[in-house]
Amino acid sequence: MMYFPLVTDKVRKHFTQYINPESANKEMWIDFNGQPIKWNYPIGVWFDAFCFESPLPWTVTVHFEDYPETKILHCPSKDAIKSHFMSSIKEADSLKHKGQVINTMQDKDHHQLWLGFLNDKFDQFWSVNKRLMESTAGEGFRNIPIKCYLNEKPFQKLVKPIDDTTENWTTLQEALFEFDPKLNFNEVRVITHGIEPSLKTPIQWMSEHLSYPDNFLHIAVINTNTTSHDANQDRTA
Amino acid sequence: METVYASRENSLFHSSIAISHERKKESIRQSTTLRTNLLKPLEHRVPHQSIRHATSTPNYVSLLHPLPQLRPFSPHITDSGPLWKVYGNREQIGDSYLKHTCVKRLADLIESDSNTESQTEESSSAAQLSQDSVETELESTYCKTDYLVKCEYHVVYSVSYSVPVLYFNISHANGSLLTLNEVWSMFRGKKSLITDADMWSTLSQQDHPVLNLPFFTIHPCHTSRLMGTLWNYSRDPPLSYLITWLSVVGGRLGLKVPNELGLYLASPEKPEGS
């Protein structure tokens, strides 16, 4: 249940008891530390990229007035979420297979992806998604669908699964250099799904196994002011 | 700790993932079921053929850079500068975009052919009702006057699809944006056969890739196929790709490409005064 609007029905029901009845039907939005949260980011990605150091449970503020429409997308219905989700999947497949897999699927397969995701049905989702994760053995995808969050801003660059110079599988570290060639790995933490994978992990493998349901890797790069000795152990290239 | 090994003949090649047990999230459930299908070693890899087979679209530089050099051809535009300006870091594909802003009458954006129909409107099937009521409200409130809106159009190159993508916003004088329904009615017209389901996969809000702010956008997944029928890599100049594409996607969104531009492309000399 990756996106906020899919999980906030109960929140809305709870708060509508306490607010001005005129506002009860208005579009709800959420902020953390004064910054409106973009619902089109997977929930965990926002947390990793913007407030990773925050204590859990994550405390956010709910609003019913003054929807900041110049900063965050509207979410008028579940169709908006489905549209966003499916277009991410299409874009990911365009990067991986020039769109050939997603375009040869029927509408019912697309719908099954969405329903499997929406209703948290692992097998239903993966029975279709596995086709999106196929690649020629030894070659990987054409490009890796990856979004990198640097200084709280998302970036997308073309990343190849096989590194041109080393002729080997591109590592996470090499992939991140595409986004910022001057990245100093002693001063940052690299987070996805709330964990810190080894920088030597092949990005092709990460794409197949650590992508979010939208088929993208979402990697947060967080600046640290001080780094402990232990954190440095597995980090150097 | 769970570790996964993929071995090559000469070296051990491992990746390890520590999964914090306090942070069990449904979203990583599928990735924790680590598949045994490991990355095959690279010895037998067929090297990628150099991917420069004839591309169906011009590359980024030839595609977007000529556009700002066009002088305004429309007699309605008094600004003597270029119609389109480049913003951001031109050298980086993902960091720059073209922008064109203008002010229009909202009545002009809602197609004039549907305006005449609206005067004699008979509410047809139930499916049309929601479309009709939205447009009637727009028309009655705004379209009878010279009510103006600000239009902003951006062209950004998509590295995922290798095509240009149109992002746009239309805002009232007080800064509030046109709603999705209003933009849809602009795009598909009044008695349209285009269903809401189709519209969701054609036109919706997304974050602008450079500015990271909400814009409406036309989904790019069909652009390549569409342009394949209209433009030929070996025959037509890159600039005509952009003009053709703009007139197709922008046509229903108030972005009129002046006829003079077509004439300019057809003849090598520039028109007088430009």
UniProtKB/TrEMBL annotation, chain A:
<dbReference type="InterPro" id="IPR048318">
    <property type="entry name" value="ATG5_UblB"/>
</dbReference>
<comment type="subunit">
    <text>Conjugated with ATG12.</text>
</comment>
<dbReference type="GO" id="GO:0019776">
    <property type="term" value="F:Atg8-family ligase activity"/>
</dbReference>
<dbReference type="GO" id="GO:0007033">
    <property type="term" value="P:vacuole organization"/>
</dbReference>
<keyword id="KW-0832">Ubl conjugation</keyword>
<dbReference type="InterPro" id="IPR007239">
    <property type="entry name" value="Atg5"/>
</dbReference>
<keyword id="KW-0472">Membrane</keyword>
<feature type="domain" description="Autophagy protein ATG5 UblA">
    <location>
        <begin position="2"/>
        <end position="64"/>
    </location>
</feature>
<dbReference type="Pfam" id="PF20637">
    <property type="entry name" value="ATG5_HBR"/>
</dbReference>
<dbReference type="Pfam" id="PF20638">
    <property type="entry name" value="ATG5_UblA"/>
</dbReference>
<keyword id="KW-0072">Autophagy</keyword>
<dbReference type="GO" id="GO:0034274">
    <property type="term" value="C:Atg12-Atg5-Atg16 complex"/>
</dbReference>
<dbReference type="GO" id="GO:0005776">
    <property type="term" value="C:autophagosome"/>
</dbReference>
<dbReference type="GO" id="GO:0000422">
    <property type="term" value="P:autophagy of mitochondrion"/>
</dbReference>
<protein>
    <recommendedName>
        <fullName>Autophagy protein 5</fullName>
    </recommendedName>
</protein>
<comment type="similarity">
    <text>Belongs to the ATG5 family.</text>
</comment>
<dbReference type="GO" id="GO:0006995">
    <property type="term" value="P:cellular response to nitrogen starvation"/>
</dbReference>
<dbReference type="GO" id="GO:0061908">
    <property type="term" value="C:phagophore"/>
</dbReference>
<dbReference type="GO" id="GO:0034045">
    <property type="term" value="C:phagophore assembly site membrane"/>
</dbReference>
<dbReference type="Pfam" id="PF04106">
    <property type="entry name" value="ATG5_UblB"/>
</dbReference>
<dbReference type="GO" id="GO:0044233">
    <property type="term" value="C:mitochondria-associated endoplasmic reticulum membrane contact site"/>
</dbReference>
<feature type="domain" description="Autophagy protein ATG5 UblB">
    <location>
        <begin position="143"/>
        <end position="221"/>
    </location>
</feature>
UniProtKB/TrEMBL annotation, chain B:
<dbReference type="GO" id="GO:0000045">
    <property type="term" value="P:autophagosome assembly"/>
</dbReference>
<dbReference type="GO" id="GO:0005829">
    <property type="term" value="C:cytosol"/>
</dbReference>
<dbReference type="InterPro" id="IPR007135">
    <property type="entry name" value="Atg3/Atg10"/>
</dbReference>
<comment type="similarity">
    <text>Belongs to the ATG10 family.</text>
</comment>
<keyword id="KW-0833">Ubl conjugation pathway</keyword>
<keyword id="KW-0808">Transferase</keyword>
<dbReference type="GO" id="GO:0000422">
    <property type="term" value="P:autophagy of mitochondrion"/>
</dbReference>
<keyword id="KW-0072">Autophagy</keyword>
<protein>
    <recommendedName>
        <fullName>Ubiquitin-like-conjugating enzyme ATG10</fullName>
    </recommendedName>
</protein>
<feature type="region of interest" description="Disordered">
    <location>
        <begin position="113"/>
        <end position="132"/>
    </location>
</feature>
<dbReference type="GO" id="GO:0061651">
    <property type="term" value="F:Atg12 conjugating enzyme activity"/>
</dbReference>
<dbReference type="GO" id="GO:0032446">
    <property type="term" value="P:protein modification by small protein conjugation"/>
</dbReference>
<dbReference type="Pfam" id="PF03987">
    <property type="entry name" value="Autophagy_act_C"/>
</dbReference>
